[in-house]
Task: structure prediction
Amino acid sequence: MTHIQDFAGRKALVTGAASGIGAACAQSLAARGCAKLVLVDVDHAGLEALDLPCETQLIDGSVANPDLWAELAADLDQLDHAVVNAGISAGGMIADLEFAEWRKILEVNLDGAFLTLAAAMRAMQNAGGSVVITSSSTGIKPIAGTGAYGVSKAAVVQMARIAALEGMPQKIRVNAIAPGGVDTAIWDSSEVFRRTSEKLGRDATLKTFAKTTPRGEFATANEIADSILYLLSDAAANITGHVMVSDGGFTL
Result:
């Protein structure tokens, strides 16, 4: 079987790379010829466990830390692609949400995405490149109880559109992807999901939650990574400022 090597010789940045969609993107980029990956996550052990067949630079730290990006600036030289993916999840009704919890989510999901995107665009301004930001279907469709998470994911959609306009003169494409339910470890941070899993088991709980989706099942991290790599690739050269919704019909 011939493997597509459309990222051969390229350099890419992936945040939230230790697990889930980020890990799937890192693995797919390496398999499709990427020469170097700069991988950022707070979970250093998870980064080390990836064992990728290309040069990797593992960065242990929060994307919301401006000092991290100041220190990393030189290492992003000649960057071709970036997956702005790091994020955390939490629910709660807005009227009941503590401000500290609001800021915790916005700090990572919005401030961290801004810092990542800005650093990537600075690194690409001489030779161009492409960026994909991970949003969410809850950033497209308002869902009660998504609190700061839904707001943060709506905000990064608009940030991607503005960045797409600003990046055009430097041949930098910026798009966003809005997944629906995806089978990743982020579900395990939900108290409701954990309680249900204790009764039904994790697989049965995922199937129960996925009943809200016309497809009837959640996406895999690899399925979302395939869509992200399409948007990053030269095959999507005419696409910028777009929000690709990949949700099994959830927002219909």
About this structure: The radius of gyration is 17 Å.
